[in-house]
Specification:
Blueprint: E1 2-8, E2 11-15, H1 20-24, E3 30-34, H2 38-48, H3 55-58, H4 63-66, E4 67-69, E5 75-84, E6 90-100, E7 103-108, H5 113-124, H6 132-161, H7 166-204
Helix pairs in contact: 5-6, 6-7
Length: 206
């Protein structure tokens, strides 16, 4: 699926994309792809000259793969975003970002609540988004906020366990600690990526 967003009067506005011709007619600042088909990948490559990474490349956890500048000048980032399932379990979804042609391209396999929230806020708060860089920085900031809310929920659950028996507490603590490690690690990773991105864009796009 391709979600394309243009900037209109300081607001993000989504443009419906069903065909290659629809994509060619738009002048977006953000092209967001959720589990894109081979055909949609081809549209991005042919229209924008951007080659999207395959699934193995997106999941590459090596430090050199999480941030690099391609030979053509495109900036590639890999970042993990928190996704809480209906059953209360948490997992991370890796998102591939490409900054190219004064556009932000993002690609991921799952629809993420952080992305939905950024789109909603940008529509309701004119002036909050000025260009493609603002979209990316807002995504990172919103993910930190979302992860903080998840941590708060974990601590509230831990308080409820205090009234239970010792065996139940030990089991519950183990379960919660395993869940807690996900948003904590995301905090560290997002802040590190944010600092790298801020330094890079300040030099390159000022």
């Amino acid at each position: 699926m391709i979600n394309v967003f243009v900037l209109q009067n300081g607001r993000l506005s989504q443009v419906n994309i069903e065909t290659r011709e629809d994509l060619e007619k738009t002048s977006p600042i953000w092209v967001d792809l959720t589990d894109p088909s081979d055909e949609e990948r081809g549209w991005v490559r042919e229209i924008y000259g951007v080659i999207l990474p395959d699934e193995d490349e997106v999941k590459d956890i090596e430090a050199s793969a999480r941030y690099y500048e391609a030979d053509n000048g495109d900036l590639h980032l890999r970042s993990d975003f928190l996704l809480e399932e209906n059953e209360g379990e948490s997992r991370v979804v890796t998102v591939a970002f490409i900054l190219a042609r004064d556009l932000l391209f993002s690609m991921h396999n799952d629809d993420l609540p952080v992305f939905r929230l950024v789109r909603l806020r940008a529509r309701s708060r004119p002036g909050s988004i000025g260009d493609f860089k603002d979209v990316l920085l807002d995504l990172y900031a919103t993910d930190v906020e979302y992860s903080a809310d998840a941590l708060e929920g974990i601590y509230l659950n831990l308080e409820e366990f205090e009234s239970k028996g010792k065996g139940e507490i030990e089991w519950a603590l183990l379960s919660q600690i395993q869940k807690e490690s996900i948003p904590v690690k995301l905090f560290d990773a997002q802040y590190e990526t944010f600092d790298v991105l801020r330094t890079h864009t300040a030099d390159r796009y000022r």
